[in-house]
Every structure is written in structure tokens, then in C-alpha cells.
Amino acid sequence: MRLRAIALLSLVLVVVGVMATAAVEAGEQGRRPHRWWQSDEVTALLGLTSEQSVMLDKIYRRALPKLRESMRRLNAEERTLSRLVADMEVEEIDVTRQIDRVEAARSEASKTRILMVFRMHRILTDTQRDALDEWMKPDPDENGSDRSQRRRR
Fold first, then answer.
1. Does the pTM of the predicted model rise above 0.90?
2. Contact criterion met (CB below 8 Å) for 84 and 95
3. Exposure of 109 by Cβ count < 10 A (0-12 exposed, 13-18 middle, 19+ buried)?
């Protein structure tokens, strides 16, 4: 009975993770990823030079293949975990090992993204980083949610 409860809890956690990932991917499908350094609004706000924009784009383009591969791997590992959790005949140790694989893939994706952002921030001056951080802050809409109107442009 305990194993079944753990399996059910794991399934719920996996489903929530998959839904969150799917929501992000659905938001990105059909449109180009947001490249804030190419936005006229942000370029003017930060006073980005054309050299800075080129360097930021170069960092992004270098990271993109690894980011995509990390997300592909994470999605595949999450699908495998979902199948394992749904199989009531599976051993708990197998689920545990798969959870470790999922978290390793999630960690790799996060590390890749954070390093890309770190490299981008090194291109900016302190003043530009502060202005970008302020621009990135979500504005509560009329319903009180944290969706930023600026970031959707």
C-alpha cells in the first residue's frame, strides 16, 4: 500500500512537471523566442550598442543547441518516469533511479540557461543590468497575476 501511495504521489509530481513544461513549450511554439536585446524598447532603455547586441546574440546562438538538447533529454526522461510510475509492477528502486535521471536532466538544462544569462550579463554595464532587471520584473495585471505586459511584446 505504501509503494502505491508513493507511486501515486510521484505520478502527480510528474504530471505537474510535464504540464508546466508543456505550457512553456506551447507558449513558444509558433513564434520566435524572445530576444530582448533585439527589442527596440530594450535597446533604447538600456542604451545597448550594436556591438553589445551582436555579442549577446552570439552568446544566445551558441547556447541554443545545448538548451534544446537539454530540454529534449528532460522531456524524454520525464516521459519515461511517467510510464514507470504508471506501472504498478515496477520496483521502487527503478522509479528512484529514473527520478535521479530526470533531476540530472533538469539540472543540466538549468545550468545551461543560467550560464547563458551569466555570460550575457557580463556584456552589460552595471547600469544596464539594473535597467534590464527592472524591465524584466513582472507587473501585476488587473487580476493581480504577475504577467508582464512588457515581456509579451
1. no
2. yes
3. buried
